[in-house]
Amino acid sequence: VQLQAFGGGLVQAGGSLRLSCAASGRPSSWHNMGWFRQAPGKDREFVAVVIWSGMSTYYADSVKGRSTISRDNAKNTLYLQMNSLKPEDTAVYYCAYGDFSGSYSTAALYAYWGQGTLVTVSS
Predict the structure, then answer these.
(1) Neighbours of 82 (CB within 10 A)
(2) Does pLDDT of 26 surpass 90?
(3) How far is CA 102 from CA 10, 12, 31, 109, in A?
(4) How far is 52 from 86, CA to CA, in rounded Å?
(5) Which of 22, 42, 76, 96 has its CA at a distance of 20 to 30 angstroms from the CA of residue 6?
(6) Helix (H, G, I), strand (E, B) or coil at 96
(7) Dihedral sign, CA of 55, 17, 21, 119?
(8) What are the residue ranges of helices labelled H in the chain?
(9) CA angle, 41 as apex, 117 and 107 as ends, to 5°?
(10) 6: β partners
(11) How many of the other CB atoms lie within 10 Å of CB of 47?
(12) Helices (runs of H) and strands (runs of E) counted in the chain
């Protein structure tokens, strides 16, 4: 499975961005797809995940209410709509893919990662 993330950029605080992640190869129908981010000098942190069925989503408290994760299984594409962006949202955002159940915020459980897309929020 290969993942290609795109859609990052420079945006002013309060603005919006939509990140996309295209999956290619042979993704299983039974998989989870998530977004993580890593700010300079910080560890990679969980942002959001959509479970394989597409019926359940989970968010980090830091983005809850401001972000929406979704997936289009027919297009093998994952999205992250981010609104009301804050300077502290500045980071490289990574999409990830994994076949597992539970502990969705644990980065080590995801087997495949995209290359990351940079989001910069100016104040």
Answers:
(1) 25
(2) no
(3) 34, 35, 12, 10
(4) 29
(5) 42
(6) strand
(7) negative
(8) none
(9) 60
(10) 20
(11) 26
(12) 0, 11
**113, 109, 116, 97: which is closest to 34 by C-alpha?**
97
3-state secondary structure (DSSP) of residue 93: strand
Provide DSSP, 23-42: EES---SS-EEEEEEE-TTS
Q: In this structure, how many other beta carbons lie within 10 angstroms of the beta carbon of residue 54?
A: 12
d(CA 59, CA 24): 25
Distance separating alpha carbons of residues 117 and 58, to the nearest angstrom:
21
pLDDT in tens, 69-104: 998 888 889 999 999 999 999 999 999 999 888 899
Task: Let me know the angle formed at the C-alpha of 107 by 14 and 59, rounded to the nearest 5 degrees.
Answer: 40
Relative to beta strand 117-122, strand 57-59 is unpaired
